[in-house]
Amino acid sequence: MKTIAWIGLGFMGIPMSKHMMNAGYTVKGVDIDPVARENAAKNGVQVCATVAEACQGVDAVFTMLPTGTEVKEVLAGPDGVFASIKPEAVVIDCSTIGIENARSLHASAKRAGRIFAEAPVSGGTEGAIDGTLTFMIGCEDPHVARVKELLAPMGEYVAHAGGPEAGQAAKVVNNLIMGVCVAVNCEATALAERLGLNLKEFFEIAIRSTADNWTFRVWNPGEGVVPSSPASKGYKAGFKTWLLAKDLTLAMDAGREVGATIATAEAAHAILKNHIDKGGADLDATSLVLTLKEEAEKAAPQKAIA
Ligand code: NAD
Predict the structure, then answer these.
(1) Is the pLDDT reported for residue 24 higher than 80?
(2) Which of 6, 168, 210, 281 could form a disulfide with 242 if both were Cys (CB 3.0 to 4.6 A apart)?
(3) Catalytic site residue 171?
């Protein structure tokens, strides 16, 4: 039986590591949050106190952490993953960290003589729970087959996007589209409500019309419209607002690097940032609709149509 280490046992890491255990891997896990550690232990993860301890003798290490800052610290820092694993082990980062951080990590792995792949994911917590994630691998050709085999228990579509940085590039572009969709779905929902539309009926219209999009169907911002959506569960994440704002920042950075226009990402980021400043950082990103509704109410209380 093979053993892996899993660092970062949050909304995504918990269900993803569970699929690895179901596929027969022994999982040693690390998280800085005691609640995450407790949930992971309940799931069957052997919780370790340090990254170095978790890495002892494992065949592969996965990271599923918030941003590039934590991933670089955990992988390339002193007593980190690269310093603690055996040379033939594979290190796969599934977090969304952007192109520049991926570049830096591939360079650190090369210096340390370690095998590293980026494999960011799409599909949300729903895809993580169902084992139907899409993976976007960025790594050197000789490692692709091993990386794909390791990801197979958690994904429905495991793609080799290309060499180093290509996985993050694909993810950044995907989340530019997704983030803008979430923002516009929230804007549309706030407007629809102000115009007196029945949100459930509008949902049925939109999913059969040109407005249809994945985030509208799965993460609909209207309370009670889609029973399984974060909006119907008090806007509890799901996908935290600050993580979505981070992803749009990564798209803006990428756009600047290559001279591409990303004006809609900038606009979506600005309204998410405003929502974060009003206390929405850790709520699901679709809670943006609450700030938009509040602002509309303040701007034109008399304009709402009953
Ligand atoms: P999360 O905040 O629920 O989980 C992150 C976990 O990492 C937390 O439990 C936190 O305590 C832990 N952590 C932070 N720093 C650490 C450190 N130094 N050492 C060990 N543990 C540490 O976030 P999430 O929703 O699981 O997202 C993780 C990554 O996946 C992010 O990059 C996010 O953008 C990406 N992502 C999320 C979704 C989603 O729908 N939630 C979908 C696709 C991709």
Answers:
(1) yes
(2) 281
(3) yes
